[in-house]
Amino acid sequence: MPIRSMTGFAQVRGQVNGRLGFSLALKSVNHRFLDLHFRMPAESESLEIKLRRLLKEKLARGHVEVTLSTDRGAGEDSFALNRSLVGGYLQAFREAAREFAVPGEPDLNVILRLPGAMEAAAVPGGEELEAAVLACVQEALERLNQMREEEGGGMARELRERMERLKAAAASMHHYRAGVLQSYKEKLLARMKELMGAQVDPDRALQEAALLVDRSDIQEELVRLETHVQHFLGMIGSGGEIGKKLDFLLQEMNREANTLLSKTSGLAGEALKITELGLAMKAEIEKSREQVQNIE
Predict the structure, then answer these.
(1) How far apart are CA 289 and CA 153, in angstroms?
(2) E strands present in the chain
(3) What domains can you pick out in the chain, each with its CATH number?
(4) Are 263 and 181 in contact, with CB atoms under 8 Å apart?
């Protein structure tokens, strides 16, 4: 299965009978989990349950809004009078007028503006509507996933390019690493001699300097970073539901970049080039994370 973005939109229209048509729209944006929201006519609970089950089978992540609207044919009433509410208001009005001997008649315009006085008319053909909508859901899902896959393909290309830039930066760091270690060792030796004076044992000073240099070596971080990049590229090639896994790998890459930057902090010369490369790495990783947040 190709990589999918979590952003997409699809809409299908259908006809139940000569009096009733409908429109089913699916809108998806990024979310940590699968979050389904339904906007449907009243008395559609059974249809909502079936749609929810179908969507869970086809979608893994995303905030998905499902909107079902109906279109009645000409001559069909869209609203119905709430007779019990209007009748109760009229009765209460007239009883109050008689009790307090106040002349007056109720205003129909005022009554019809009361909350609940006018209700949406019941949708005809409930079972027919449910069957017609369920028959169109697969088409809507295919259109939605096609859009999500097209956007996912573009994101995959961009992520591959960023990973290639990370690999190039790591290769350049390997080139500068030996010179940085030698400079660090010389700096440490000079500093130790300055602090300890003529009494320092040259061999002991060399051992201490070598130990400190080893602790400041960025070789392990570079190897782990390159391994994460290869794993990342392999997962992009395999496709599927990989958004969370890619995000985890990028967090690991960012951790390695931070460590190698801390190890070369305060050094001059070629170490400054490693610092520049490390900052460029972090920028690529952060931009990749922004993209990955929208991958299913």
Answers:
(1) 16
(2) 8-17, 20-29, 34-39, 62-72, 79-81, 118-120
(3) 8-76+125-149 (3.30.230.10), 79-118 (no CATH), 152-292 (1.20.140)
(4) no
Per-residue pLDDT tens over the stretch 101-113 = 888 888 888 888 8
Q: What is the pLDDT averaged over residues 263-279? A: 77
Query: CA 50 → CA 19, 53, 176, 202, distances in Å?
Result: 24, 5, 61, 80
Burial degree of 228 (CB within 10 A; 0-12, 13-18, 19+): buried
Q: Do 166 and 225 contact (CB within 8 A), yes or no?
A: yes
Contact 183, 269 (CB under 8 A): yes
Q: For residue 263, give both structure tokens.
A: 């190890």
- Per residue in 100-158, pLDDT (tens digit) is 888 888 888 888 888 877 665 555 557 888 999 999 999 999 999 999 999 999 999 99
Closest listed residue to residue 166, CA positions, set 292, 290, 295, 278: 278
Tokens of 21: 């048509």
Decide: 296 and 241 in contact? Cβ < 8 Å.
Answer: yes
